[in-house]
Amino acid sequence: MADATTDASCKEDAATTKSNLKQASSKGKKMAKHNDELNGGNNNNNKAMKKGNHVEGGEDDASSSLESKNLGLELKLNSIGRGCPPEVYVWPLSVMANGFDPYSELFTTIKLVSEEPELKSFFTNEGFKDAVKWVSRSSLKNVKKLVDEYNKAVKAYQDSKKGTIPETCASTELIQHIMAVIYSRSVTDPSKLNRYKGWSEQVYGEFSSSMISEIVRNVPIKAGDRFIDLGSGVGQVVLQVAAESLCADSFGVEKQDYPAEYARLMQIHFEAMLKWFSKKHGKYEILHGDFLEDMYREKINEADVIFVNNFAFGTQLNQQLKERFMNCKEGARIVSSLNLSPLSFTITERTLTDIGCILQVKRIRCTGEGVSWTSRPFDYYIHKVDRSMIQEFFSNPERKPVRASIPEPEPEP
Predict the structure, then answer these.
(1) Residue 233 and residue 264: Cα distance in Å, rounded?
(2) Which of 123, 143, 184, 235 would suit a FRET pair with 132, their CA atoms being 20 to 30 Å apart?
(3) Rounded to two decimals, what is the model's pTM?
(4) Is the pLDDT of residue 245 over 90?
(5) Do residues 154 and 80 lie in contact, with contact meaning Cβ atoms separated by under 8 Å?
(6) Which residues pair with 227 in a beta bridge?
(7) CA 410, CA 205: separation in Å to the nearest integer?
């Protein structure tokens, strides 16, 4: 992501945001306080609903009236890990005007926890199955029954363990759910992410969590890899890669102020949620800075996987990226939203100075809804650093052209 040109009103907003984030950072010095803040955001959402700041979400009027005496009742989901406060949801679980759906979040959390390999044997009783079968957004009795059955299963799991609950690898679906939860609690005003100078390289865009999972699988990003995100935004790619691949190092750097500030909150909630679910993650770090600074050259050169969302970058910035990528180590993979070299690139005497001479390029076609800036079908590219191609060119006395890109498969009839 490129630099942000912030007007006077934006600077005022930034000052307010930084003040709030400073308080959040102070709380974040201890994990217990991380969790308090996490649940604080959730409780605030639900308190807003108690004030009537919600939409009906399909509840029957008679049913709502019947259970009106229970307005404000707290439903608490206990954590898998020990020592974490419960997730608190306040009745009624109606969809809020801002789109937050506490019922969906609660139900999805219970569903995914019950499907985790180390836990699913504790959710096989008929009581839990019946609670899942009959649960309804409009029925407090049935929702409470589901929560109670969930908490009993979690307690049984915890009682079966001696001492500390072991941290395990989260499923892809659970990781995507966690990322959605922490994003909604961290990025409180998404409109601030789009405060950039029009028709500039400062345009902000995001990959969906499902798209990130696809990239982890297709590259692939593995446990021993060093990953770097150049222009990491609010940090969702860095954090998800750390949790999903358990890579050796997941590193991100973001230049814009607002995304960088939100990234700090994302990290607080990320730590809290993974502890709540008792899940592992790899080492990660997100910094506020310019990825073109010399201090990041070594990180780029040593990375096994580089991610850059360069779709809106201008010619000059993309050229600067190419210059830095010329020194990437052999076998490094570069994932980008705009190809760094033509798919038809061929090494000849004329193209010897082009980065295409050391890159194999593969295009991955997506059906859409994988990125924030378009719902149309979208392509991204995986480049692999391979200097054997240029060696092949020079080893041939006749200097015959060498095709650098990976041929695409023939379309299915």
Answers:
(1) 11
(2) 184
(3) 0.81
(4) yes
(5) yes
(6) 250, 305
(7) 31
Neighbours of 379 (CB within 10 A): 13
Alpha carbon 111 to its chain centroid, in Å, reads 20
pLDDT recorded at residue 195: 59
| Share of residues in the chain with pLDDT > 90 (%) | 66
Instruction: Encode pLDDT of 304-328 as tens digits.
Output: 999 999 988 889 999 999 999 999 9
Nearest CA to 256 out of 200, 216, 300 is that of 200
Task: Collapse the DSSP code of 363 into the 3-class scheme (helix H, G, I; strand E, B; otherwise coil) and give the result.
Answer: strand
Residue of 103, 3, 1, 85 whose CA lies nearest to 45: 103
What per-residue string of b and e applies to 57-91 under the rule 16 or more CB within 10 Å gives b?
bebeeeeeeebeeeeeeebebbbbbeebbbbebbb
Say how far apart CA 313 and CA 242 lie, in whole Å.
Answer: 26
Instruction: Report residue 329: phi and psi, to 5°.
Output: -75, 160
User: Which residues partner with 308 through β-bridges?
Assistant: 230, 336
Distance CA 157, CA 174 (A): 18
Strands 87-90 and 359-366 turn out to be unpaired
Read off φ and ψ for residue 256, nearest 5 degrees: -70, 145
